[in-house]
From TrEMBL:
GO biological processes: cytosine catabolic process
Magnesium recorded as keyword: no
Top-rank lineage group of the source organism: Bacteria
Pfam families in the record: Amidohydro_3
Domain Amidohydrolase positions: 41-401
Protein name: Amidohydrolase family protein
Length: 435
């Protein structure tokens, strides 16, 4: 039998080695060692890691690549970023939002990032960004899954027309209901917004993803309300709380009550390590809080935790390159997630876990799944986080859509090797300690 594509001698994220992955008609047809079959194209993975695509479950594509417009965020703070976005919104054009988003998607694909959940601001009465990103969504569908969240950036109740605008955005086909309860004028309004927005999602059969408690205030506890409303309305498995940075500052007794409530309600969590540690703790002296939520404690409770990039070169964050392994590496360092199992879980937090949070269909490396995968210049998932390696091939529906040459450095030192391959430095458990 001849397949459209066979990736030979791959290492899979679960540790299996020497695996061949055969693709036909845009789907994975078989995964097995040393298949006796031919492919119209064959790629020798040479024992390197083949992963399902990277997934970013929290991003702001309407703002991406706008750094410097109309000015820089001089302080680098969250509040100046929000103010700056307010200055930029009236200046946005349909064409410019589309062009920046398409350029970002090009960069994402080159990094093996093939699925993005983007919050889109609905507080602009023109709904310009919504309409622009709906067009982008259609244009990138052949090579990237873009899921949109109706996000009332200025507050569902605090912004005059947000209620009507959010309904209009959902009518235009935005798939997820968003919110930002900690930005409302009072705790009571924040709780009321969670209740109202969850009811909208329940009525329309939609998913929920709320910016929740993105604050250093340990008394910002809207995630508790979100968990309650999830259970009350039967939304289990359809709701995510994003950021949850106040949990970094909460007292341990309260968290010991909160995490079981989240687990019981089936609420997922999304941390944004790069942005959370940059924007939180700005009022602190020393010791200085870094703000990332309690990732290992939630994972231990069985709460799904995904990692998002959040921002790339926009009013809130002047760095970033669409690299979800950079996101995972930052989480590992800040969260002290350095056990072998914790690092493997960090890789899952930018692949399989966010795919489940987004309800992506037919995602993975099993027969019947979409033939979407990434070949990395690394031998396993921990090495991938350590190295943030070259994506040798990015495959979408069985077709190679991006390729990069291996990173090999020529060395000019007498008595030493001519070449250095960074991937060759992977540890060998149980190997000869003299080597």
């Amino acid at each position: 039998m001849t397949f459209d594509l066979i990736v030979r001698n791959a290492t899979l994220p679960d540790g299996r080695t020497g695996q061949d992955i055969a693709c036909a008609d845009g789907r994975i047809a078989a995964v097995a060692p040393r298949m006796d079959a031919a492919g119209a194209r064959e790629i020798d993975a040479d024992g390197q890691l083949v992963s399902p695509p990277f997934v970013d479950c929290h991003f702001h594509m309407d703002a991406t690549l706008s750094l410097g417009l109309p000015r820089m965020n001089v302080s680098g703070t969250l509040l100046e970023g929000i103010a700056l976005w307010g200055e930029l919104k009236p200046l946005l054009t349909h064409e410019a939002v589309i062009e920046r988003a398409l350029r970002y998607c090009d960069l994402a694909v080159s990094q093996g990032l093939l699925a993005v959940r983007s919050h889109v601001d609905i507080c602009d009465d023109r709904l310009l960004a919504v309409e622009a990103l709906k067009e982008v969504q259609a244009r990138v569908r052949p090579y990237l899954d873009l899921q949109l969240v109706a996000f009332p950036q200025d507050g569902y109740y605090r912004s005059a027309n947000a209620e009507a605008n959010l309904a209009r955005a959902l009518d235009l086909g935005v798939e997820v209901v968003g919110g930002i309860p900690h930005f409302e004028r009072s705790m009571a309004d924040g709780a009321a917004s969670v209740r109202a927005l969850c009811e909208i999602a329940a009525d329309r059969g939609l998913l929920v993803d709320m910016h929740c408690d993105e604050s250093d205030d340990p008394l910002s506890r809207h995630i508790e309300t979100l968990a309650f409303e999830t259970q009350r309305l039967g939304l289990q498995g359809r709701v995510a709380g994003s950021h949850l940075t106040s949990m970094h500052s909460m007292d341990n007794y309260y968290v010991s009550k909160l995490l079981p409530l989240m687990a019981e309600a089936g609420v997922s969590a999304i941390a944004n390590p790069l942005i959370n540690i940059c924007l939180q703790g700005r009022h602190d002296g020393y010791p200085k809080r870094r703000g990332m939520t309690r990732v290992p404690e939630m994972q231990a409770m069985g709460i799904p935790v995904g990692f998002g990039h959040d921002c790339v070169m926009d009013p809130w964050y002047s760095l970033g390159q669409a690299d979800m392994l950079e996101v995972a590496a930052m989480a590992v360092h800040v969260g002290q997630l350095t056990s072998r199992d914790a690092m493997r879980a960090a890789f899952e937090a930018v692949t399989t876990v966010p795919a489940a949070i987004m309800h992506l269909q037919d995602y993975g490396l099993a027969p019947g799944c979409h033939a979407d995968m990434v070949l990395l210049q690394a031998t396993d998932t921990i090495e991938a986080i350590r190295m943030k390696p070259v994506r040798l091939a990015v495959i979408r529906r069985g077709r190679v859509i991006a390729e990069t040459m291996p990173r090999v450095i020529a060395l000019r030192i007498d008595g030493r090797p001519d070449m250095v391959d960074p991937a060759s430095y992977a540890p060998r458990e149980g190997g000869d300690p003299r080597l």
